[in-house]
Fold these 4 entries.
Entry 1:
Amino acid sequence: AVGAAHAVRIRGGSEVVAAGRYGGTSVWATTVSSVELVTNGDFSGGSNSWTWSGDAAYNADAQRVQLNEENSAISQSLALEAGRQYQFEMDIEPWSAGGFGGGSTTHRVDIALGSASASYSLTAGGGFISTTLTWDVTADSGDDLVISRSGGSPFDVDNLSVTAFGWNTNSPVT
């Protein structure tokens, strides 16, 4: 509808997906290519492309990273564009020296993408629990991706991903 507000998020591809008039202005929109920016996010290449600090360790058998102690971190420099929207994803799996028995544990993870940051506190109950953490963020400045343990019990991370998403609406319909 002319003049109606629409909010749609589409990932992938670069084809024209919408064209028309909005508020008397002709616009077209394409989806932004969802090119993976993280190198070796599944850790199949070991610790290649990552910088380690604190007590971060690579688990070769499971091909994942363990953030064992508070302030343990991994980081990687990415090519981010200020003002662009990105989606960060990673798998996080809690663990403790006693295994996945009863009780509950809290796991605190900090994520920084350039100058933007987010902190999460996840609680795992008895038994095996893992989850995929997703964070949509607009890049401001800086290019580093940093994942760190800021407290709580140790956890593993795997399948780290950063992709651009959103609309490119910079060109008019002719």
Note: The chain has a mean pLDDT of 76.
Entry 2:
Amino acid sequence: EINFILGQSHFIKTVEDLHEVLAQAVPGIKFGLAFCESSGAALVRVSGNDPAMIELAQLYIYEGSTRLELAPPMLDAVTVKQEPASAARAQYLLGEYYYRKGNLAAAAQSFLVAATLNAADADRTASSLFRAAEMMNLAGRAADVRELAARLEKFFPGSQWTAEARKLLEGGPR
């Protein structure tokens, strides 16, 4: 069962305002909402707290959807308003988004942030550090690659991501 609410507004912060009202009025509510601006670029603003949004954004990113630009706002909403596991996953997906857009610096930064959001998930942390190292490698920042590989060696010595980082340092195939 779902409840569908349709509204109309002329205010730019409508999505944020509705998010706040829903979250405060119904503790524990799971929701997603979207608002399409009627002027200019007709941007779609989204918000919510449902991890299904992460799945949708992931589809947009990994399948090269024409709706790729909808993914970052969804993921940003989850990163800010979710528990650590979902926030780390959303931040990781933001790294993938920026990588696919060719922005290696933003991708590396997103992966590094993802590595800090959920210390309880060692694999997500290690994979995030490795993906950051990959971005640095693609950007020609060898010193940063070595530093991230050293971090992986120190904190995740038996991880598959540490083994991948060693290959990256050696210049071999993954």
Note: The beta strands are 32-36, 44-48.
Entry 3:
Amino acid sequence: FVDCSYNKISSLIIPNDSTIRNIRCESNQLTSIDLAKCPNLSNINCENNLLEKLDFSNNPILAYVSCENNSLETITFAPVMSKLYAIYCSGNNLKTLDLSSLQSLTKLECYDNQIKEIDVSNTPLSDLDKEEKTSNPSTGYRFILYNYSSVYKLDFLHFNVYQSYFSFWRFFYL
């Protein structure tokens, strides 16, 4: 367990340690974080920093990510991630999200970004049809997208929305 939250640190060097399962480094001044040396990382909370990218390609058993309020432009995931069920990535500079490798994803919050494209094919979010997602809050699925820019392609309900302009778009699946 690594916890260095609320310390105003600008650099974090994580040792090569396969026993690290949880990292809490929120509310600092981090501009980057190298998670490649933590193959058994399960949970990370790195919100309220200055991060521009996150790379989880070497963290295949990651289950929970909170990276809100950074400057993230990219988030990279491993080709197969069977345990990641929740991503909170609001308040960033994300333009696209490819979540298609996240086989257990049931919670996603990504408002206050510049998202043009989201792919949640192959995730549980894509298995429900539109009517069930909008009318049955007991499913346990949650997707929230507040988008103040144009969404050019949204692939998650087995349909695509092209050139759709909304001033405020909100989906809640609780």
Note: The two ends are 30 Å apart (CA to CA).
Entry 4:
Amino acid sequence: FYTLARLVVALLVIVGLPAVVCAQAKGRDTVGSLIQRLNHRNVEVRLRAIETLGRLKDARAIGPLLGVLKRDTLYSAREKIVMALNQIGPPAMEALITSLDSHDQRFRHDVSWTLGKMLPLSHEPLVAALAHESDLVRRGAIRALGRGKDVAAVDPLLTALDDGNALVRAEAAE
């Protein structure tokens, strides 16, 4: 019977029913079960887990999603993680802003893009990040504010033109 149950759950995932149904059918913690699936070898299982975690909007998924964003090279997975973090909303912002300090340029780019997608919700935290001690965080915040095409971002971006770091000034000038 156990093997049959596993087969039914596998078929549900393959057919495309939400992973939440599968996790609940097994009687497991839905979010925990989905987080475990973020490392599944099957790409479709990973992508469905990412999508469902975004729909659940549970803050427990933020750290694991950021971890996958940092290491997964698959564009569709990275894109879905950005959307999932955007769906989670304000609870994800602090972790995203902290992640701007990463030395991984691709990861920083994805994080700033995500924050830019979260505007206007992320406006105040991004403006506050312009005063961060790390030039990487300041540059990422500028990039996110610039992507948002928000008129309210003009003054903070103009102020960033006077930053003590040449790379931060160059980012603000773009």
Note: The longest helix spans residues 2-15.
